């Protein structure tokens, strides 16, 4: 479980939500799928050059404690500041990163950069979790465990506050081998999360067996939560079970107050989505933290 945080004031909660709404339209303008005519921009050579020339950068989307409205952490997301096409979202280049194998050095850079930024925040007294997405190819890499250990060591980042997120779809392939790899990661002291989880697809017991600490509810599932009693019932049962298993439940993709209110009522622990905030670069997260002052050890 991530550390608990002090209660935020209603005014600050309103400000964070208002900021998110101002950014939604700007973020929505980023294309969500590559066109055939842009394929050349996503070649392995272009991606390799992007890594060498520092064109990749990270943004951080806040996660919010749904029961206290406190700042709980951030999810780390990659962007490409293309010299000709502007800022590109990951779904415009991730497939080529995977196919070319460049996902390994780019993933290593992401871990190193995220942990270093996390240490900057933590040295200022901010104590919150940093979640980094991990691809199947990274998990299968013989060097991934060493990559994580090196990122933690070089940055001095607290391993207990690093969350590695995996897609549920590949965790049950080669079960014994996956179990061994995840166990080695847990030995480093990090937390493990399953992304895009939908209750009923696999039991929580199965995930606990793999050492999973956190389940992130699928955003498409969350979109039905305010209008579907079936979805709400599934969430209710999941939260009850998660308390027994000491697993944290995070709801991603929260878009409106009706979804937030229903999830609060079902005692879901943490929420994430444009209702609260769009992803931001570190300097903008700095302003959030300074304004809210809802972290451990600092006054409001």
How are the SSEs ordered, and which strands pair?
Elements: H1 10-28, H2 44-52, E1 56-65, E2 71-82, E3 86-88, H3 94-100, H4 103-123, E4 129-134, H5 136-140, H6 144-155, E5 162-167, H7 168-171, H8 175-186, E6 191-197, H9 204-209, E7 214-217, H10 219-222, H11 229-245, E8 248-251, H12 257-265, E9 270-272, H13 282-292
Parallel strand pairs: 2-4, 4-5, 5-6, 6-7, 7-8, 8-9
Antiparallel strand pairs: 1-2, 1-9, 2-3
Provide key terms for this protein:
13 helices; eight-stranded mixed barrel; disordered N terminus; globular; disordered C terminus; 300 residues; TIM Barrel; alpha/beta
Distance between the termini: 24 Å
CATH third-tier fold name = TIM Barrel
Categorize the overall geometry.
globular
Largest sheet: 8 strands, mixed, barrel
CATH architecture term: Alpha-Beta Barrel
Low-confidence stretches: 1-38, 294-300
For the largest sheet, list the strands in their spatial order.
1-2-4-5-6-7-8-9
Q: Can you identify the CATH superfamily?
A: EAL domain
Radius of gyration: 19 Å
Order of helices and strands: HHEEEHHEHHEHHEHEHHEHEH
Helix content: 40-55%
- Tell me the strand percentage band: 15-25%
- Mean pLDDT value: 84
- Give the tally of β-strands: 9
The secondary-structure class comes to alpha/beta
CATH top level is Alpha Beta
Describe it.
The chain is of the alpha/beta class. The protein has one domain (10-28, 43-292): EAL domain (TIM Barrel). Helix content is 45%, strand content 18%. An eight-stranded mixed barrel has the order 1-2-4-5-6-7-8-9, surrounded by four helices. Strand 2 (71-82) and strand 3 (86-88) form a beta hairpin. Helix 4 runs parallel beside helix 6. The longest helix is centred in the middle third of the chain and has 21 residues, at 103-123. It is globular. Mean pLDDT is 84; it is low at 1-38 and 294-300.
